[in-house]
C-alpha cells in the first residue's frame, strides 16, 4: 500500500547536485524518507528494485530525459502506480502537456519553492493511499476490476481480473482493439469478449483518481450454438436461434435485427420456447440453454 506522511518514501531525480541537496533537505525536514537518483537510468533501476511512494522527476536531463523515464515507469506493472511530479524550468504549454501525456500527475516549475512542493507531495500521496485502499478492498471482495489509462493500458487489476485478462492483453498490456474502441463509445453500456474458457462481459464503473477508467469484468458460461440447442432441447432451428441470442443477453428488438424478424415474431418464438422448456422467464430459459445445451454439443463442436 502507498504510504503517506512520515513513512512515505520520495525519490528525487535530478542531474544537478545543488537541486538535489536543496530538495533533499526540504523533504527530510517535512518528515519524508528521501532517495536520490542523478539520471533517468538510475531512477528506473532504483524504482524497479524498491518502488518509492512518489517521484519528483526533472523533465530535462542528459541521456534519458524525464519524459522517457516516466513513460518507461508507466509501462512496468511494478512501477506504473507511482505518482510522478515533474520539475521543469519550462512554462511552455507543450512541455506541460507532454508531462501529463507521459503519465505525470502534476508539475512544479523552477526555481523550486519547497513549501509548494511539500504541499503537492502531501496531496498526491493522500490520493495514492486512497486508491491503494480501494484496490485492496476490491481484492478482498474477490471482484474482477481493472483500471486502464488513456491508451487502454492496464494500470492495475485485481487478481481475478488479471487471471482472466492474461491471454487477451498485448505485449504492452493493452486491451484488444475491439475493447479499446468500446471504451470510447459511451452509449454502449457493456461489451462481451469471448475467450476459450468463458465469455467476459465488461461494464464501466466510472473514472478513478488520475483519470483512469475502471471496468468491472463478469464471467459468463459459453452459450451453445443453435445446432446444439436443437439436439438437446428439441427446438426448431428458428426457436434455437432465438434462444441462442436471448441467452447472449439480446433484447427482442436486437434479436429481431440479427435474425431479420419483427420483435413480435421473436416474442412468439419465446412463448413456444418457454412452453417446451417448462419455464416462465428469459433467465430461466438461458439457464436451461447453458446447462442442457452442452449435452447436445458433439466433440467436434467443442
TrEMBL record:
List of residues that carry 4-aspartylphosphate: 58
Record carries keyword DNA-binding: yes
UniProt keyword annotation of Phosphoprotein present: yes
PROSITE patterns: HTH_LUXR_1, HTH_LUXR_2, RESPONSE_REGULATORY
InterPro entries per UniProt: CheY-like_superfamily, Sig_transdc_resp-reg_C-effctor, Sig_transdc_resp-reg_receiver, Tscrpt_reg_LuxR_C, WalR-like, WH-like_DNA-bd_sf
GO biological process entries: regulation of DNA-templated transcription
Residues annotated as signal peptide: none
Keywords: DNA-binding, Phosphoprotein, Transcription, Transcription regulation, Two-component regulatory system
GO molecular function: phosphorelay response regulator activity; transcription cis-regulatory region binding
GO cellular component, one term: protein-DNA complex
One Pfam family in the UniProt entry: Response_reg
Domain of life assignment: Bacteria
Domain Response regulatory: 9-125
Sequence ranges assigned to domain HTH luxR-type in this UniProt record: 228-293
Annotated protein name in UniProt: LuxR family two component transcriptional regulator
Organism lineage string: Bacteria, Pseudomonadati, Pseudomonadota, Gammaproteobacteria, Nevskiales
Amino acid at each position: 500500500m502507498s504510504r503517506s506522511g512520515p513513512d512515505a518514501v520520495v525519490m528525487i531525480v535530478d542531474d544537478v547536485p545543488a537541486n538535489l541537496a536543496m530538495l533533499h533537505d526540504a523533504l527530510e525536514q517535512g518528515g519524508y524518507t528521501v532517495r536520490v537518483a542523478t539520471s533517468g537510468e538510475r531512477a528506473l533501476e532504483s524504482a524497479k528494485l524498491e518502488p518509492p511512494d512518489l517521484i519528483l522527476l526533472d523533465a530535462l536531463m542528459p541521456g534519458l530525459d524525464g519524459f522517457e523515464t516516466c513513460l518507461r515507469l508507466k509501462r512496468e506493472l511494478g512501477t506504473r502506480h507511482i505518482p510522478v511530479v515533474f520539475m521543469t524550468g519550462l512554462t511552455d504549454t507543450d512541455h506541460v502537456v507532454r508531462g501529463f501525456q507521459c503519465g505525470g500527475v502534476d508539475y512544479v516549475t523552477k526555481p523550486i519553492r519547497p513549501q509548494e512542493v511539500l504541499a503537492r507531495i502531501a496531496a498526491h500521496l493522500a490520493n495514492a493511499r486512497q486508491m491503494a485502499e480501494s484496490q485492496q478492498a476490491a481484492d478482498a471482495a474477490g471482484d474482477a476490476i481493472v483500471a486502464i489509462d488513456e491508451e487502454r493500458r492496464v494500470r492495475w487489476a485485481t487478481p481475478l481480473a488479471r487471471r482472466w485478462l492474461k491471454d487477451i492483453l498485448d505485449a504492452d498490456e493493452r486491451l484488444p482493439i475491439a475493447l479499446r474502441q468500446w471504451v470510447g463509445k459511451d452509449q454502449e453500456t457493456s461489451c462481451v469478449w469471448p475467450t476459450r474458457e468463458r465469455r467476459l462481459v465488461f461494464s464501466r464503473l466510472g473514472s478513478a483518481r488520475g483519470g483512469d477508467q475502471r471496468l468491472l469484468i463478469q464471467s459468463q458460461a459459453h452459450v451453445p450454438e443453435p445446432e446444439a440447442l436443437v439436439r438437446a432441447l428439441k427446438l426448431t432451428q428458428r426457436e434455437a436461434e432465438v434462444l441462442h441470442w436471448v441467452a447472449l443477453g439480446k433484447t427482442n428488438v436486437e434479436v429481431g435485427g440479427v435474425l431479420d424478424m419483427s420483435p413480435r415474431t421473436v416474442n412468439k418464438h419465446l412463448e413456444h420456447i418457454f412452453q417446451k422448456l417448462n419455464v416462465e422467464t428469459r433467465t430461466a430459459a438461458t439457464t436451461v440453454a447453458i446447462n442442457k445445451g452442452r449435452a447436445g454439443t458433439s466433440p467436434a463442436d467443442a
